[in-house]
Amino acid sequence: MMRAHGFQKQHQKNTLKKITEADSKYARLEAMGVKELLRNINREDGSVPGAVEKAIPRIEKLVKAIVGRMKNGGRLFYIGAGTSGRLGIDDVTFHRRGILSYVERGST
């Protein structure tokens, strides 16, 4: 198989298979009413605390590793666009030492 722009080309079927995105549980968003959209958003938002709880041991390990490295002169890089990029800028603004932020700038 061959990778190209987040997809794998399957030579047998000559189709592209998504490798970076999951299929949506909410097909046809444009056909949903406002109330149904809001309920679906709320349902998905409700899944976040459980996912974070499950990841806390790995997040703790990561944070401790980053702090240890930064105390020894290491650097933290934020690379993002949109909200993630802006959060990186906030950390650079408030903490400056050892934190670098690279933000993708799209057209507005």
Tell me the domain tally: 2
Distance between the termini: 37 Å
Specify the biggest β-sheet. 3 strands, antiparallel
Please indicate the percent range of residues in DSSP E strands (runs of 2 or more).
15-25%
Helix content: 40-55%
**What's the helix-strand series?**
EEEHHEHE
Q: Total number of β-strand segments?
A: 5
Helix and strand content put the structural class at: alpha+beta
> What is the residue-mean pLDDT, rounded to a whole number?
78
How do the strands line up in the largest sheet?
A: 1-2-3
- Overall 3D form: elongated
Oligomeric assembly: single chain
Number of helix segments?
3
Low-confidence stretches: 1-11
Report Rg.
20 Å
